[in-house]
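[Automated response] Your request has been received and processed.

Submitted sequence:
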Amino acid sequence: MNVKKSLSDPTVCATLGCSGMRKSVSIPDMKRGRKGVSPIIATVLLIALVVVIAAIIFFWAKRFVGEACEKGGTSTENKCAEVNLEVSRAGSTLYLDNQGNVAIAKVRIKINSGGSESVVDEDVNLAAGLATTIDVPDISGAEEVTILPVLQGAAKSSACEDVCENLEIEVLEGGE
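Generated structure:
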């Protein structure tokens, strides 16, 4: 009796007790009685998962990339180099003369008085070549007053402002 033939014959296995021997199982036998996810539904779920993960990464990364604030097609940071603001002070009045070729929307006034510093933003809307005065009562007894020009620009989604940090103008009492 051939062992290979006998083990494949069900009657021989029943007689000999073929325990531990593997029986070949066909794929249709495996599917019988089991439920699963169809390949189409699985594909749709995977695509949806990838889209959700991509959206999360996009909104997370968007925080790190700021929109460029532009004025006249140029970055407002570059426009700060074209600002030429002459400032003088008499008491609580500031005299502002825009001698540059860029309009100044606001001025940020840093007031140092008695070791404490306060910051005041004043709207000036000062076009190139024009001058104006503003009254700031907080500066009358200040030890040090510093002016920072603020340019108004536009980003893709909204208006924006850029403070020209590199153009701090120290204002002395009675002159420039």
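Summary generated for your ticket: Residues 3-62 form one domain. Helices lie at 3-8, 10-16, 27-31, 39-62, 76-79.
If you did not submit this request, please reply to this message.
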